[in-house]
Design a protein that fits this description.
Blueprint (H helix, E strand, L loop, with lengths): L1 E3 L5 E6 L4 E7 L6 E10 L4 E6 L5 E6 L4 E7 L6 E10 L8 E2 L5 E5 L7 E7 L6 E10 L4 E6 L5 E6 L4 E7 L6 E8 L4 E6 L5 E6 L4 E7 L5 E8 L15
Length: 246
């Protein structure tokens, strides 16, 4: 769990064995990381993933062993994280990475070990950054939902389902943020990370047990059309897409 803030000034890492998040400032010339003072902030039990919201004002850490998300504000000068009030919000069982939509209005958390196979859905308080559970607070995905990605328009969301080798497709209600099922599409074996590239034309899924990356075209209605596969190394667990400078 490593996250970089949108300004490129700060880096955060989740430390699952000591229940903290490390905070660093980035040297703009050399890229060297310097710990902040203090160098860490407390999280919940077994923090696994860090997410910084698109505005760079808020950070969220999923705590896999206490079924919560820790919420922080980011000091724009120092990068130090300060717990919000309340400091945590409940999720389903053993939450994975928080996904904040590009508009910064909504957030989604997959709960892979929850028997309901649920994705928790929240509205982001624009002033405080606190995650407010929606009504309903969750939506069903496939078996073992593990990763959520939102397209650049904030109209569509996608969830990888590790134990049925599919991707669930959803439309996003622009007023409430609630997800509405929009079908499923086949993936490789044990799909995990999913990313929508910045133009919103293509989607990529890393298949951990299949050693491949599934490639999809994103259609105007939010559905995905399989466009091929690429061979990866052994057990791919992360996918990233570069952003071209204008």
């Amino acid at each position: 769990g490593i996250a970089i803030d949108p300004s490129g000034k700060f880096v955060y890492t989740a430390n699952s064995d000591d229940n903290t998040v490390s905070m660093f400032a980035i040297n703009s010339s050399t890229g060297v990381l310097t710990p902040t003072t203090p160098p860490t902030v407390a999280a919940g039990w077994s923090p696994g993933f860090v997410t910084v919201d698109p505005s760079g004002r808020f950070a969220y850490v999923s705590n896999q062993d206490d079924d919560t998300v820790s919420m922080y504000t980011i000091n724009s000068s120092t990068g130090i994280l300060t717990p919000m009030t309340p400091a945590t919000v409940p999720t389903g069982l053993s939450p994975f990475r928080v996904a904040v939509d590009p508009s910064g209005k909504f957030a989604y958390v997959p709960n892979p070990y929850d028997v309901r196979n649920a994705v928790s859905q929240y509205t982001v308080d624009s002033a405080t950054g606190v995650l407010i559970p929606n009504t309903p607070s969750e939506v069903a995905a496939g078996n073992n939902p593990a990763w959520v990605a939102v397209d650049p328009s904030s109209k569509f969301a996608y969830v990888t389902n590790r134990l049925d080798n599919t991707v669930s497709m959803f439309t996003i209600n622009p007023s409430t943020g609630n997800l509405t099922p929009n079908g499923t599409v086949a993936a490789g074996r044990q799909p995990w990370p999913i990313v929508v590239e910045p133009s919103g034309k293509f989607v990529y899924v890393g298949n951990e047990d299949g050693d491949t990356v599934s490639i999809y075209a994103l259609n105007s209605d939010g559905t995905l059309t399989t466009a091929g596969t690429a061979t990866a190394g052994y057990s791919p667990t992360s996918v990233a897409v570069t952003v071209a400078k204008q």
